[in-house]
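ESCALATION

Customer reports they have been waiting on this structure for their group meeting. Please prioritize. Original submission:
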Amino acid sequence: MTRKLSLFCLVCLLWPLPWLSGAQANPRYDLAFKHWGEFYLPWQDWRWWKAQGIAESGLNQAALGSEGEIGVMQLLPRTAELLRVDPFDAESNIQGGIKYDRQLWDRWAGATDHRELMFASYNAGPANVQRASKIEGSTVWWIVARGLTVVTGAHAEDTIAYVDGINQNYSELR
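Update from on-call: job pushed to the front of the queue and completed.
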């Protein structure tokens, strides 16, 4: 009986969780997301940053983007330099991504859809999202997204999908 129970427990540990697949089930960087999330944005659930890391790279530190982005949080080398982090080290990369999120969070202080605008800024660039917000005269995400098409063209669809993906990832992580 003990042997069967032990085998059952082992299978439970190794079998993927049905409600979490791939990167969501990967706890590899959870401590870094928790630590840096609580350090830079302690009033937010750390799983938002993991959801973002999933959207950025699938939590793959070896990921390299087409524009030179590096690691889990897909930091550009210049951004990593400005943030004083090593984009090639996973924990430092995660720190840099969340530190940059904090800067973007502060930039959108008082906005209606604070979090979505922060994530959109991370993806499309803060100046582009700011311009879209001014064009539309709003800080409501779905309205700003409409203006983003004017500012960034086809890239707006990528940014909208990126923000939606983070929200979906977070829902699955909760």
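Sent to customer with the following note: The two ends are 35 Å apart (CA to CA).
Escalation resolved.
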